[in-house]
Amino acid sequence: MSPLRLEGGKLVANDSGSERVFEYRMIDGVPILIDFEQSVFTESEITCRKAGSAIVRPEYTGLQRSLKRMVSPAKSGTRVNILNLVRHLENNDGPSKVLIIGGGSVGNGLEPVYNHPRLEVYSFDVYVTPYVQFVADAHRIPLPAETFDCVIVQAVLEHVLQPSEVVAEIWRVLKPSGLVYAETPFMQQVHEGAFDFTRFTESGHRYLFRQFERLDSGANGGPGIQFMWAVDYLARGLFRSRKVGKMAKLACFWAQYLDHLIPAPYAEDGASGVFFYGRKTQRVFSPPEIIAHYRGAQATRR
């Protein structure tokens, strides 16, 4: 994809691979960089809601915000992983460019990235918020290759139809040896309704990023958090009430702290979510290697 240019009030880019010319419109000054021929969204739909979110996201204030933080605190694993990522980027000469996919809000534990003086953060999502510079579909990121030092994709890959295509785009826009950090659900119920498609085991998630060298990976939220989610959906199913489900989840908020007692192999087999932290490479992780990669509790110990 070539750099964007302004022509006749529209943003235009060329795809060198297909020789297509893409023309994008703007809504209230925000570029809408979606290839509607390859997206679940339609141009009329985006225009009708003025690029607002298709999902109603409640605002939590006061007591509700405190209760929300109680059942969904920042994961300690995420905090550690993000600090490691920041330390790696600090070794670069000059500022590092970070692309956040699905950055409609500041993700769980990402404050060190947004607040760091030497990190230039660029963000997009499929809807407009104060945190995004443009609206786009991650299946086709409308930016030139080898642009970014790091890409963060947190709680997004479950919401795209073709995760492998999104990961290929991440690889494309990263500079050589660029870093990627991803978090994706494993044993988690449907959320965001019609816009929820996929789940990954730790091994499946690692193979999804097979064009990347693994720096770290594992469970991100263990069986305790997964149990809390399950209680929520059990209650809402029995009583046909989302509110009752949330009350049941609140009553079991303590279960998440049991994850601190669970060894990593057992956590990976029953994780609520998984993470991958890696570096762009030219070597592709082979199918036989994924079998040897498995480190869960069911691995054969010798």
Give a written overview of the molecule:
The protein has 302 residues and is of the alpha/beta class. It folds into 2 domains: 5-48, no CATH class; 74-222 and 263-293, Vaccinia Virus protein VP39 (Rossmann fold, 3-Layer(aba) Sandwich), CATH 3.40.50.150. It has 10 helices and 11 strands. Strands 1-2-3-4-7-6-5-8-9-11-10 form an 11-stranded mixed β-sheet, sandwiched between helices. The N and C termini lie far apart (49 Å). The model has no long low-confidence stretch (mean pLDDT 92). InterPro entries: Methyltransf_11, SAM-dependent_MTases_sf.
- Annotated CATH architecture of the largest domain: 3-Layer(aba) Sandwich
β-strand percent reads 15-25%
Shape, please? Answer: globular
Category from helices, strands and their pairing: alpha/beta
Query: What is the ordering of alpha helices and beta strands?
Result: EEEEHHHEHEEEHEHEHHHEH
Lateral arrangement of strands in the main beta sheet: 1-2-3-4-7-6-5-8-9-11-10
CATH superfamily of the largest domain: Vaccinia Virus protein VP39
CATH domain fold name of the largest domain: Rossmann fold
Number of domains: 2
| Top CATH class of the largest domain | Alpha Beta
Unreliable runs? none
- Total E-strand runs: 11
Mean pLDDT: 92
Q: What is the count of DSSP helices, taking H or I runs of 4+ residues?
A: 10
Helix content: 25-40%
Rg (CA only): 20 Å
Distance between the termini: 49 Å
Subunit organisation of the chains: single chain
**Biggest sheet overview:** 11 strands, mixed
